[in-house]
Design a protein that fits this description.
Blueprint lengths: L6 E2 H5 L4 H21 L17 E8 L5 E2 L1 H11 L3 E13 L2 E12 L2 E13 L5 E9 L14
Parallel strand pairs: 2-7
Antiparallel strand pairs: 1-4, 2-3, 4-5, 5-6, 6-7
Protein name: Nuclear transport factor 2 family protein
InterPro entries: NTF2-like_dom_sf
Length: about 160
Amino acid sequence: MVAKVFENIDEAAERYSGLARKAIDYGRFQKRLMDRAVAQVPDYSPDEWLGLKDLVTDDFERIGNFKEVMTIDQMIAFLQAWAPTSAWEGSFKRVTEHDNVVILELEERVQHDGHWNAVNSVSIYEYNDEGKLRHLDVYLQAVPGDVEKGESYDV
């Protein structure tokens, strides 16, 4: 069995290249914007989330932890609304890359409405041959009752 090591995502990213690094950097991009949004940095703009479009295909699809399906435009709208109200942090566990698929395991911690939840997550990134993300599946493992579908997840 491969040991699961929790470490800083930025430090772990330095060891990877290729699509594995792209998957990690995708999350780091979102983390930077979430931090800017929640801190209400004066030059933060919700339009910064439009930068995600440079990383994905036109037909991108995300299937989230509640089986909600989002296009890139729906996901950006969700993140623009959610980011200023929530804090996110994560610890790296491991990443696996095969062909055009990357499996990324994290422990994620989210604060919303003053309450912190910790979950184990597995995200499966499917890239096209040009290295753009075309599909993302998100799976969560949580203590029962810790993760509830709230209005912020409505798309």
